[in-house]
Specification:
Shape: globular
Number of strands: 22
Distance between the termini: 75 Å
Structural class: alpha/beta
Strand order of the largest sheet: 14-17-18-13-12-19-20
Number of domains: 2
GO molecular function: aldehyde dehydrogenase (NAD+) activity
CATH architecture of the largest domain: 3-Layer(aba) Sandwich
Bound molecules: nicotinamide-adenine-dinucleotide
CATH class of the largest domain: Alpha Beta
EC number: 1.2.1.3
Pfam families: Aldedh (PF00171)
Number of helices: 15
Protein name: aldehyde dehydrogenase (NAD(+))
Catalytic activity: an aldehyde + NAD(+) + H2O = a carboxylate + NADH + 2 H(+)
Helix content: 25-40%
Length: 485
């Protein structure tokens, strides 16, 4: 078997607490999704280990928060450099745990490093306001860190998810207890060594692997964690928010699932639109929250568009194979559970009578590979049009009028990302305004996103925003100070 990474075989399986690696009493298994073989057994942080991480984070907090913010930024910049320097190692670890293909993953590592550096650059922007409106007073607000915070991450973009949380959390002076997904703990734990090398003091950045119902629940319900940032499914987000409310009413930000509409008008450049729409659902084998999984096409161009879209989708996914093989472009789904979920959605759509245009089957007998799959006009109320599949599966639906398609696109409880393709500026702006979504792409779609502007969802796709100054605000509390003159 060809191996696209060289000379790296280092797997860390222990929790990382107070800059030390710690064994847990229990372990859990992860498997290589390219072949189903056991990859490693990982420590599962229980309530006691989460408590130890909180102790360490609390102890480290005051000194970390008292540093000049540029000193905290230097640690983040060094960590970014170390991520890049260990690209080969990260590629290997992600390939054997969640099946990230080695030819594509360096771009995500670069992305994660950029997020850390961007947040380091915001170190001097942690500002409050002043007011002279009250006679005889000079009043002000200051933005202060929460202290020991929690972060719970998904597996589909492991290092990016970590960077999006750790960057703003740490530069603003918080300390962190971060739980990677049980599907993708290897890169997070390997990062432990780099956290030490980057100069983070003990206790500032702790990593506790484990399943959600054990480790995640211990974080979400912890009485001394005052802020929690969660990224994952809407169903889990609801549980986490409940645990937070029922414990100490900690501040929670939620980045949740999506069922993103992409609208194509006849005046759009159809070839370019089909390529972008296909890449959006092909990227990471459809395992991305902002994937354009609901495509709406004007009835006058439906046949032409479907032909272009299916061809581009097959091209974008390319060759299925071992994620370590440098010629592979089509990644496996992350694990058996994810694979079975996707196949159940395809089965359900077939049973509901949706017209299958392409795909629908497993590829090969080893590993968890799903053909790129397209259903045509399954019906607005069909499950495939309403629920997040998180795989290379899209529906293409026809529409007639602007009013109709706006209604169809907004007819969902999700609101993460929406796209409209048209050359008519008025129409583009009208849709940008009226689409019920945290992010709207005009003549572009996901994974396009600028990190210097907020990222997040409306409706049941989330609460709060990541990226940009809004992230600094999310990781700090406002205090109002009244000064009598
Ligand atoms: P998930 O909800 O299954 O798990 C997310 C995290 O929550 C994991 O770390 C998991 O261990 C933890 N968890 C599970 N049960 C828990 C519990 N009871 N208490 C505390 N923590 C618990 O999601 P996933 O399968 O890891 O990720 C895919 C989902 O994430 C998709 O819905 C996708 O759309 C969403 N996602 C959203 C964004 C975004 O920015 N909006 C980004 C990436 C992924």
């Amino acid at each position: 078997m060809a191996n696209g990474v060289q000379g790296v075989h280092d797997i860390e399986t222990r929790c990382f607490i107070d800059n030390k690696f710690v064994e847990a009493k229990e372990t859990f298994a992860i498997h290589n999704p390219s072949n189903g073989e056991l990859t490693a057994r990982i420590s599962q942080a229980d309530v006691d280990l989460v408590d130890s991480a909180v102790d360490a984070a609390e102890a480290a907090g005051p000194a970390w928060a008292a540093l000049d913010s540029s000193t905290r930024a230097e640690c983040l910049n060094r960590l970014a450099d170390l991520l890049i320097a260990h690209t080969q190692q990260f590629c290997w670890l992600e390939a054997i745990s969640v099946g990230k293909v080695v030819t594509f993953y360096p771009a995500e590592i670069q992305w994660a490093a950029n997020v850390l550096r961007y947040n380091a650059g915001l170190a001097r922007e942690i500002h409050g306001e002043t007011s002279m409106a009250t006679a005889g007073f000079l009043n002000m607000t200051i933005r202060q860190p929460y202290g020991a915070c929690g972060a719970i991450c998904p597996w589909n973009g492991p290092l990016i998810a970590i960077a999006l949380k750790a960057g703003p959390a740490l530069v603003t002076g918080n300390t962190l207890i971060l739980k990677p997904s049980e599907k993708s703990p290897l890169t997070a734990l390997y990062m432990g060594k780099l956290i030490i090398d980057a100069g983070f003091p003990p206790g500032v950045f702790n990593i506790v692997p484990g399943h959600g119902r054990v480790t995640g629940a211990a974080i979400a319900s912890h009485m001394r964690i005052r802020k929690l940032a969660f990224t994952g499914s809407t169903a889990t987000g609801r549980i986490v928010k409940k645990l937070a409310a029922e414990s100490n009413l900690k501040n929670v930000t939620l980045e949740l699932g999506g069922k993103s509409p992409l609208i194509v008008f006849p005046d759009a450049d159809l070839e370019e639109t089909a390529a972008m729409a296909a890449f959006s659902i092909a990227y990471n084998s459809g395992q991305i929250c902002i994937a354009s999984s609901r495509v709406y096409v004007h009835e006058s161009i439906i046949d032409k568009f479907v032909g272009l879209y299916v061809a581009q989708l097959k091209k974008a996914m390319g060759k299925a194979g071992d994620a370590l093989n440098p010629t592979t472009t089509h990644a496996p789904q992350a694990d058996a559970l994810q694979y079975e979920r996707i196949m159940a959605y395809i089965d359900g759509a077939n049973k509901e009578g949706a017209k299958l245009v392409t795909g629908g089957k497993r590829i090969g007998v080893q590993g968890y590979f799903v053909e790129p799959t397209v259903f045509l006009n399954p019906g607005q109320s069909s499950t495939i049009n309403r629920e997040e599949v998180f795989g290379p599966v899209a529906s293409v639906n026809t529409f007639v009028s602007e009013e109709e398609v706006l209604k169809l696109a907004n007819d969902t409880e999700y609101g993460l990302y929406a796209s409209v393709f048209t050359k008519d500026l008025n129409r583009a702006l009208k849709f940008a305004k009226q689409l019920e979504s945290g992010m709207v792409g005009v003549n572009c779609t996901s994974p396009t996103m600028p990190f210097d502007l907020p990222f997040g969802g409306s409706k049941q796709s989330g609460e709060g925003r990541e990226c940009a100054l809004q992230a600094l605000h999310a990781w700090t509390e406002t205090k109002t100070v009244m000064i009598k003159l």
